[in-house]
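Q&A log
Question type: sequence-to-structure
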Amino acid sequence: MDTSGFRNGLSIIVDGDIYTIVEFQHVKPGKGGAFVRSKLKNIRSGATIEKTWRAGEKMDQAILERFPLQFSYEQDGDYYFMDIESYEMQPIPKEKIGDGVKYLKDGLQVTALSHAGEIINIELPITIEAAVVETEPGEKGNTASGGSKPARIETGAMVGVPLFINVGDRIKVDTRSGEYLERCKD
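Response status: OK
Response body:
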């Protein structure tokens, strides 16, 4: 494919690595040839780069497959996920999951990204529900606008929560930012 086929979300291979096009702009200056400015996100590392292409420059498109996996357990630095369709266990190293490992809990369904049969990345759901296992006791009269305190959730992650949250409460957490969203209703 070439630069005329660019669109946001398209995956391409650049210098042997897989990138997703975050944004692009076709530029036709008064002098010289047209070119394309692009912002690319590395699928493996999450790093963002900017690259300029000559109009019509060719590159390889990366065909990515997405499929659901369910987290089962961690052993010796590998995280084991069950393929929901075939029930096979897939070991995935921590590096491919990144900071998301602190939100993994038994039975959590994630989306795997694979290229040419190799799993290259794991996408967590945007939010998870988890029980608070450790925090200072909430005091009577504290409201949502009062402030925050640290709390450890069942996955081991630390989250800043409002003062009225107690041990045993279930909360919703944003896995992208690690922020408390709301207390779950039972």
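Response note: Residues 69 and 146 are 39 Å apart (CA to CA).
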